[in-house]
Amino acid sequence: MFCLCRYNHTFAVVSEQVFMFGGCAEDGCYYKDVHVLNTETLVWQRYGVKGESPLACAGQTLTAHHDKDIYLFGGKCTSQDGTVTSTNEIHKLSIAKMKWKVPLYVGIPPARRHDHTAFILHSHVCIYVFGGKNEEQEFNDLKVMKLINPSERQPVMKQILSEFGLQGVSHGFVPTKVPNVKYELSESPSLFSVRTDAAASAQVTAQRDFSAVRDEAMDMIHKAFSMLDGEFQKLDRERSELAQSAAALQYKRESHQAHHQQQEEELQEMLERHRAQNETWLRARAEENDKERKGLCKLREEIVHEQGRLEEEQGNIQKRSEHLLSIMQQFKGM
């Protein structure tokens, strides 16, 4: 099974197989299908890949990691508004499961780009990205992303936290600490009386300030009702405008229906008139045809009658000729 014509696609070699992804057609359509070429049989095969598939793109990189995974980074694709833009997404294709995944890595991801180069240094399990370009600039930087194996997720996170001076999160049992609280009366009676007087004075002040709070609350209520009145007036105006628009639309609809009805009546009248004219013309042509056919029939009868009369005269003439011939032969014998 051959793949469709395309350009700016990418390859990755894994063992005896060549994996191909993406590319762009002549009409600007981007692909996200995966095709595999078996180098022994030289047969192409399209694979159905599960998981979270990358965007349909071109100009990305496919980098094989041993014979287990293929990492895809970057490329250019079509955004939701139809414009062509670059991306910095990274995806991992698990060859054993034929499934797309979003890999874990440590480091700042490179800026979105396409037409770059990438390789994996197996000793450090890092993917290196160099160069490329996007819609704004061209790059000559080198970015490194350290790939994280899911089984090594917790040790790596502990190492990262320790680098920032943080301790790892313990998932074991830790008993709850009960705070040490002192239940003692250390205040003197004089201090208690002072606090009581202060509370009483604060209560009186609060009662005095209640009128101001009430006035402020009433003012806010009046403002709120004023705003509600304004909104209701605005709603009434919009309702009136909507009613006027509905009436205008109904008037246009009725006028359109009346005009359509008038056109149908005129068309029906025109059809009736045309039908009457055609029927009149057809009847006249039929009468003329019948009259002409009757004349032809009469003429044919006259011709047949004249033909019979001529044949009869011809027979009489033939008899006379024979009679004269016999008389002449008699005269010759005398």
Automatic annotation (TrEMBL):
Pfam hit, one: Kelch_KLHDC2_KLHL20_DRC7
InterPro entries: Kelch-typ_b-propeller, Rab9_kelch_effector
Coiled coil: 253-284
Signal peptide coordinates: none
Keywords, sorted A to Z: Coiled coil, Kelch repeat, Repeat
Primary role: Rab9 effector required for endosome to trans-Golgi network (TGN) transport.
Protein name: Rab9 effector protein with kelch motifs
Species for this entry: Oncorhynchus mykiss (Rainbow trout)
